[in-house]
Amino acid sequence: LSRLLSVCKTAFVPSAVAWLTVLCCSLGPANGQTTDGPTLPPSFVLDDRNDSSRDTLAGWQWTDPGGSVTLAQLLATRRTFTPIRSDQIHALGATGALWFQLRLQRPAASQAAWVAEIELPSLDFVTLYQQDRAGIWSAQNAGDKLAVASWPMPGRYPVFRLNVPSGEARDIYLKVQHNARSSIPLRIAPSADYLQ
Question: Span 55-68, mean pLDDT?
Fold first, then answer.
């Protein structure tokens, strides 16, 4: 009997180990996540008590060297995003594009209207993408390649009104194109700051 148990143990253990190895490898990382980039950026809370975020903006950025990636392609394919660094100098060239992804969380008691602004008067072109209540994406454009009168909020530099209902969280994307080497000073602020 002991010899029979020894034979069964010898035959069973390697098979079980092999089966468990295959199972674990096929499952991949926990929760179906891949390792090439985050799914969601950290939330930035639109707190009426805080006047703005300039140097500590929470979010992700990704550079598209060819500048041809559309929002639909960005949403369909995982990209390697990195945390936003406000002091980083970007060299996008004539064709490159810098994408920002932000998750904005608006408290239920929030009353202030908010804007996204890039305080770079010479910025070539920027598109803001945001969703309405039905989940439909819309695009707004600004920058030196367009007449200032056609901007959503005409002024010295691109500014966009943010559509984040109270008590909800929304993702927004900005696609920035700028030929000159420069930092991209993205800021989220109450619209009252812009109007002052």
Answer: 88
From the list 176, 44, 168, 164, the residue with the least C-alpha distance to 102 is: 44
pTM confidence score: 0.77
Residue 68: pLDDT above 70?
A: yes
What sign has the CA pseudo-torsion 189, 190, 194, 196?
Answer: negative
The percent of residues above 90 in pLDDT, for the chain, comes to 57
Record the tokens describing residue 41, joined without a space.
């950026």
Whether 102 shows a pLDDT value over 80: the answer reads yes
Q: Burial-class residue 77 by CB neighbours within 10 Å (0-12, 13-18, 19+).
A: exposed
Q: Could you write out the DSSP letters of every residue in 104-147?
A: EE--TT----EEEEE--TT--EEEEEEE-TT--EEEEEESTTS-
CA distances from 160 to 38, 68, 115, 190 (A): 25, 23, 5, 11
